[in-house]
Write a structure and sequence with these properties.
The chain is of the alpha/beta class and 334 residues long. Helix 2 crosses helix 3, helix 4 runs antiparallel to helix 5 and helix 5 packs antiparallel against helix 6.
């Protein structure tokens, strides 16, 4: 995500400008026209409406957002190499390679300040990508330098010990589990050890059986109804607690929003307008891909040393957590 004044496309050479225009998104099916410029994967806007204390403020501000499906194998992202080996390290290197190639296609953005944002397992992706950029910038030539200023991560996976402890602190504090189960977990589970005992796993399975009927990612909202009569009958989003398409509630939070998006992005006309899936990958668009998860070979135990290194190196870091997420709760990130 880059925040700055708009670059001037007219200064581009004809070949680069032609390549960019081929990526322009003119409109999207069933969507209203937007007050922005959009290319495949990037949206730029010089207008923003902010509501503060019931007062609307119209702000002229430039914002450029680049969206990346990562790792390869999720969303519209793909690889022309085997995906049999996945992991933290290779994901960071591939994302860095993507950025280098993207800036070659859109060089007018290279002078802008660059921030990275994400949530959940992006607590790994983003600090690791930031570290690669940070280290490579020290030895990069000017044309490969990325003006990284900081990153933002919400409800992130950061540290296996505190992440695990926080789950049960949150569940007990929100009356989801009994005192006896909470005490047993605290006594029998040593989350500082990467290898848990079978006794601890049994307690974890007990906990999972108790919370599987609720939307743990949004504690006080309903789950997506798997038995809805208006369901599409096909599970497109292979993610826990998302389910399949169902009827929309009349108002308020919609627990199936991810499913509507999944179905929308699988429409051929939408993909055509987005210039997405141009290689005609065999799988459907999915938010999660368990083949990728099963191929994951390395996952860093703690990202706290990496974040500390980047803060000491001058990067701005913003970590935040909402109190409705029971899977990566505020008691973990606190």
């Amino acid at each position: 995500m880059a925040l700055s004044k708009f670059p001037v496309p007219s200064l581009l050479d004809p070949e680069t400008k032609s390549l960019q225009e081929a990526d322009r998104v003119v409109s999207l099916p069933n969507q209203p026209p937007g007050m922005f410029q959009q290319y495949a994967g990037i949206t730029s806007s010089n207008y923003m409406r902010i509501t503060l204390n019931c007062v609307n403020w119209n702000v002229n501000v430039a914002a450029n957002l680049l969206f990346l499906d990562s790792p390869a194998g999720v969303g519209f992202s793909y690889s022309n190499k085997t995906l049999d080996v996945q992991g933290d390290n290779i994901t960071a290197l591939y994302s860095y390679a993507f950025l280098q190639n993207w800036f070659k296609r859109f060089p007018q953005y290279k002078s802008l300040e660059f921030y990275i944002a994400g949530e959940s397992y992006a607590g790994h992706y983003i600090p690791q990508l930031a570290e690669v950029i940070f280290d490579e910038n020290k030895k990069s030539r000017k044309e490969n330098y990325i003006k990284l200023k900081g990153f933002i991560i919400g409800n992130p996976v950061l540290d296996k010990e505190t992440d695990r402890k926080g789950i049960y602190d949150y569940a007990w504090g929100h009356a989801l589990i009994s005192d006896s189960l909470y005490k047993a977990v605290k006594t029998k589970c040593d989350f500082s050890n990467p290898i848990l005992t079978q006794e601890c796993w049994d307690l974890i399975f007990n906990y999972n059986s108790l919370v599987e009927i609720i939307n743990l990612l949004s504690l006080y909202t309903p789950t997506c109804d798997l038995n809805s009569s208006s369901s599409s009958g096909k599970k497109l989003a292979a993610c826990p607690n998302t389910g399949i398409l169902h009827k929309r509630p009349s108002a308020g939070y919609d627990p199936c929003i991810a499913n509507y998006a999944t179905e929308y992005f699988n429409r051929p006309d939408v993909q055509q307008e987005l210039h997405a899936n141009v290689t005609k990958i065999s799988r459907p668009y999915m938010l999660c891909n368990y083949e990728v998860s099963n191929a994951w070979k390395n996952s860093t135990f703690s990202l706290l040393p990496t974040i500390r290194k980047l803060i000491n190196g001058g990067l701005r870091v913003w970590l935040y957590s909402g109190d409705m997420d029971g899977r990566l709760p505020v008691t973990s990130t606190r």
